[in-house]
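Batch 3, record 17
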Amino acid sequence: MREDVVTPNGDEERVDPIRSTMPGMRGGREPTIVLDHVSRWYGDIVAVSEVSFGVGPGVTGLLGPNGAGKSTTLKLMAGLLAASSGTVTVGGQPARGRPNAYRNLGLVAEHEVIYPFLTGREFVRLNATLQKLPRPRQAVERVIELVEMETAADRKVGGYSKGMRQRIKVAAALVHDPDVILMDEPLNGTDPVQRAHLIGLIRQLGSAGKTVLVSSHILTEVERFAENILVIVNGKLAAAGDYRAIRDRIDAHDHAVRIRASDPRRLAAALMTEPMVRAVRLDTQGRIVAETDDVRAFYRAVPVTAQRERVRLLEVQAADESLTSVFSYLVER
Amino acid sequence: MVSVAFSPFPITRLTIRQFARGKSLLVAAGIVFFPVLFAILGLLAPDGLTVRQLRQLLSSVIFLGAFTGTLLPVATLLLASGAFGDELDDRTLSYLTLKPISRLRIVIEKLLGVLIVGILLAWTGILATVGVAAWGRYDAVEDLVWPMLLSTAAGVIGFGSFFLLLSLYIPRALLTGLFYTFVWESALARFLPGIRTISIRHYAQSIFAELADDRRIVLAQQAELRTSVITVVAICVLSIALGTWRLRRMNLE
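Prediction for the assembled complex:
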């Protein structure tokens, strides 16, 4: 049960991830979900490699770049996938092969498809019926209200926006009031208002003592709802613990940020003078790619510089390859 | 449209609604109504058909020749391969498997959806064909109708459960099923005596031949009624059991 991880204080040491840094383990509380040396591979491709950690009550963020193994990890916990090796337990019982365990577990899957011919209310009702709830109608109305979908609940799901589909999936996953909730990128496709509402709901579920695990590839998103995070990179557990410590370590690494602007050359020249900028170049599509050693200060400086130079910003985002390299940095440490 | 929620068979109703919105149902309907064209041709015969010719057209040419041999298995395949196959393709099956219900119930309810739609569709096609072929002379073929309907139901049960099972094991169940239907059921089982007795088509046709009160309707190696019914039931039960076993062990991406 022991493996090398980067702990919040930055020390590399042999730790027991189940009993050290994770929520639920501190203060003598037992973890609800335990992964013990779990691997999952597809032929020669390893999706999850020798991962061991525990998740206790409260909200835990599962952070990692796209393709890191987050969805596979969540599916292993939900029992949708069998581990190639190792064990996954939820509530002390094997995660797979026990349908009755789903009375107490809800999964918001990443894939978007919901039966398009059902209305949102029918979809949630279907979930309530299959959960054999004693008062399904009340449960359905409760969760539809919880995700603020009352006005759209009688429309066909096929006509929903991505954000609406996410919210109705959350409603379906919560209709039976489970104690363990797994959410795979639930904020994808949501607008800022929907996002704020869902984040509030996630925090509320955590405060109510439920075990909530939410995956995301955006640290700034995760830190809005989770105190504790697990970082998974290339199928391996790279870090675990308090998000502040992990954020500081991530921020200390060089970042690449891609900017689209009305006058990229002028803005690039101005950004070169900023102290936190290490290098600036234009890519083949005329976008600025800036490397910085203080990404938060850089994000503050960009709009100020653009305004000063009278350049219109069209898009500012972390370069994907930069994000992957930042996460990988945690593994290399 | 039926509501899928708060019903005794929510997965069956869900499956029926899935069929209702898809193209498979339309194609399957087109296939089972195809024999109506044969019936129209019979009606247009220059001197009309004698009673004997009419009964032969309906029983041997249309029902045993085209319908149960090829059209019924293909129509059933379209429905059965989509019942699980579509949900595996669009990854909605996890909405069912992540519930506190047994895998056996999921398989049975899915199969029930296939059988309800398949049997109703096939019966409608058969009745329409008989109605057109025996226009104004229904009394001459009345005794063939119930054997046709029961034989059709047996065929849908046999083919439906087998193809449903196939879709849980093989990603391209439709193509594999078509190959099986045309090569095994339609060609090999028709001409090779050894293979005939291990084809679903043979037992569905035997039920018709046994029930039809007509000494001219005889099949090569015709199975007894009891043997045919037991075989069809056995295929259904075995398919349900293997399907449940597969669903328990299946990894859902």
